[in-house]
Amino acid sequence: MAQSVVKDVKTKGAVIGQVSVTTFDTLDEAEEELGEEQVLGYVNRGIVIAALDNKRRELTGGATTGIRAIMKKVKDDPDLLARIKELVGEV
To answer: What average pLDDT does range 24-42 have in this prediction?
Structure first.
C-alpha cells in the first residue's frame, strides 16, 4: 500500500528542510497513481543515475574525493596534521 513518508533535505551534511513523498509497494500501485509513462521515466532515470555513479566510482576509485579517509588518518596522527598545517601555511 502506498504511504507518505517525510525525508530530510540535506546540503553539505546539514538538514535544510523536509519533504513529504509517496512511496509505493508495487509497480502496479505506482502505475495506477502516476501512469505508465511517468513510472517508466522514473525507472529509466534511476538506471541512468546508477550507471553514471558506477562509472564515476570506477574512474575515480570511489564515490567521493576520499577526504573522509584522509581526515581519519590525520585525526589519528598528530605529526601528519602538523605537516599538513605547515604545507598549507596554517602554522
So the answer is: 96
